[in-house]
Amino acid sequence: MRIVIKIGTSTLAHSTGRLNIRRVEELCKVMSDLKNAGNEIILVSSGAIGMGVGKLSLSSRPTDIPTKQAAAAVGQCELMYIYDKLFSEYNHTVAQILITGEDIEHIDRRANFENTMRRLLELGVLPIVNENDSIATDEIVIGDNDTLGAIVATTLGADLLIILSDIDGLFTADPHKDKDAVLLHTVSKITPEIEAMIGGAGSSLGTGGMLTKIKAAKMTVAAGTDMVIANGKDPDILYDIVDGKDVGTRFTSRKV
Q: CA–CA separation, 99 vs 52, rounded Å?
């Protein structure tokens, strides 16, 4: 299978912004194993700004654009160094792809992105994609990596998009506020009722939330790609998702 795995900042880092070393090491191990099994793996990784915040010892995620971009520049270096080191331990080569909204909107640039990605996969490389936060502005920003994951998955005709976050999936209500909230394991159609269940933004270090995940699900399902939202606290959950087990929330496509 061709699988796009999006990992959120809350999965990669502690609340301090510093890397969750044990979890990231385990994530890379499991993704390497899935690749060894014959799957094509594409990683969409958040965390550049969050890691930059930690490395620069900032007290919180910056709100002004120049500091965000500076934190992203620092954090992206750290992020790719770690991924290269960890995946190399399992004999996998990684490549960094940084894009902006303008690269997706422009026909020629999008074609170049797609051609590069497909060639990397042919060469057996594990591409790691992130938004180019160091140069993105309001006019060219994609905005969140749930959407970026959906763009990558649909552009490359992936079989599955997995979004790992700090939530177990889509609930009938906010599980933090309603003890009767029930996890929905399968969503075959995104109805107005489903959309009414979603909340606002995610963690203080990230930019996503259930709203962006539902948006991503709409994109992927329409393109014939299944999408799963799951909790990334235990990286072994990736095995269960790929095996089709009933974990997280799976949005099923109409692909025959």
A: 18
Q: How far apart are CA 252 and CA 5, in angstroms?
A: 16
CA distance 129 to 87: 15
Residue pointed to by tokens 């894009």: 99
Q: pLDDT tens for residues 141-172?
A: 666 889 999 999 999 999 999 999 888 998 88
Say whether 244 sits in a helix, a strand or coil. coil
pTM equals 0.88
Least confident of 40-49, 59-68, 211-220: 59-68
Terminal-residue alpha carbon distance, the chain: 16
pLDDT over 70 at 139, yes or no = no
Cα 100 to Cα 227: distance, rounded to the nearest angstrom: 23
Which one-letter DSSP state was computed for residue 234?
A: S
Separation between Cα atoms, residue 88 and residue 74, nearest integer Å: 22
If residue 227 lies in a helix (H) or strand (E), which one and from where to where?
Answer: strand 226-231
- Is residue 145 a contact partner of residue 107, using CB atoms and an 8 Å limit? no
Distance from C-alpha of 193 to C-alpha of 34, rounded to nearest angstrom: 35
The DSSP symbol for 223 reads T
